[in-house]
């Protein structure tokens, strides 16, 4: 094996672009490993860990780009470097007008002074400063970046509240504001349901289901997973809920979150009780009866939150897209060839939801993100027993793009799971929408076929599609592809998990 | 007021992941992508000083506006 590299000083690309190109080039013949990244502490550590670090990297800064390839021979490595450069050049061409792009937020504001939203996905250590600049200039913030400290979050949210400007995040992947999907979000029709959520894929699942049921939304405001913590005090949830309460286009308000801190819950309930509109609450894992006792409509899961919001928004009665009988019919005759269930999720809230429903059925269940009653996996890279895994968690995404964008690790993992004689049923999600991979179904099917071919095994497979028919991926095509590959397809995670429940009970 | 922002056209400055700007443009959203890079060549001490200056400037600006 030989290592070839080049350094491009003062050349900056965002991490997602670099990770995707690195991962695509790694698949070329003869390539053992690639590090395509800015010279950050993380990338330096990765190079050292992979024994690919070179003395020429000493003294470089996070504004310098490293392309480092380990391959079977020098020519293969050099060709791969050339391929990376070609893809980066294409990326630069595709992103621009003839004019040079602005180099800072301030310069961008000169070119587009009427901008009212700043979408920030820079590395976490720079995100708070950029957010403050945006807020001080009177612009709302969607903060996709993670690794922002809770102290910084408190500071920028306090500033946002003082100016009555949104701070959606940090680590907020989804929002739909005034009909515009931001970052990872689905194409959802306009309507009269307003949502505030501290859960990314939870918000995608509920808004997509609302759309497929025929209803629509006013706003889907992401607030970041820590907003209802004691330290942040629900600052954005409270501000966004108040605004929806005063918004004449919003008839029903939906709140989605993990259960808030006790002190925040009291303030939140006091605020919500002063609102005359109907409010649906899904505090994931909390007792719905306690919510109902406070006078609100409690949802039992994400699908139920969408159905209840639609009921209240139109006065009609909505039902799940698949009835219990249809789910039972789908499970009829399904034989598990192995004893255990495996879930390979890209959406964290969907993974959480599956654990909540299935743990009482199977007893011992492991996850990398275990809920109460489940076990932490002893080896994240090898499943044992019943496992439901969130592949979008930091455990799997350090230095890699999220599995909704880059399916590489999930496809490698599903090949392994299909070949595992213990795996009898494999569940996975296909999340559509802006930001997501354009053919996740195709990528997963290719890996499944390879797993089947390698092992000669045919475990049961089921997928749920989180998305709408207006999404860029073509919902029907994705669904048909999956079905033709012998995979059971469900419109919601809950429907898929109920199917899994029936298969597990039938195979006891 | 936040409620007054509801219903208005969203116009975006994008800092970071370039594909987010591509998706917005495809939807016809007025968007400007910034060729963002770590300020001060990644030197954290200089960055902290620059942030202090920027915040001080914005405080002066708001104080002038309030007069």
Summary keywords:
heterodimer; A: 508 residues; alpha/beta; Rossmann fold; seven-stranded parallel β-sheet; 18 helices; B: 67 residues; mainly alpha; two-stranded parallel ribbon; 54% helix
Architecture blueprint of SSEs:
The complex is a heterodimer of chains A (508) and B (67).
Chain A: E1 2-8, H1 15-26, E2 31-38, H2 41-49, E3 65-71, H3 74-94, H4 105-111, E4 117-120, H5 124-136, E5 140-143, H6 150-163, E6 167-168, E7 174-177, E8 180-183, E9 190-197, H7 200-212, E10 217-222, H8 235-246, E11 252-257, H9 262-273, E12 278-283, H10 288-293, E13 297-298, H11 302-314, H12 324-331, E14 340-345, H13 348-362, E15 365-367, E16 375-376, E17 386-390, H14 394-397, H15 408-419, E18 423-431, H16 440-455, E19 460-466, H17 475-484, E20 488-490, H18 493-506
Parallel strand pairs in A: 4-5, 5-6, 9-10, 9-11, 11-12, 12-13, 14-17, 14-18, 15-16, 15-17, 18-19, 19-20
Antiparallel strand pairs in A: 1-3, 2-3, 7-8
Chain B: H1 2-5, E1 12-15, H2 18-26, E2 31-34, H3 44-66
Parallel strand pairs in B: 1-2
Question: Could you give a quick summary of the protein structure above?
Answer:
The complex is a heterodimer of chains A (508) and B (67). By secondary structure, chain A is of the alpha/beta class. Chain A contains 18 helices and 20 strands.
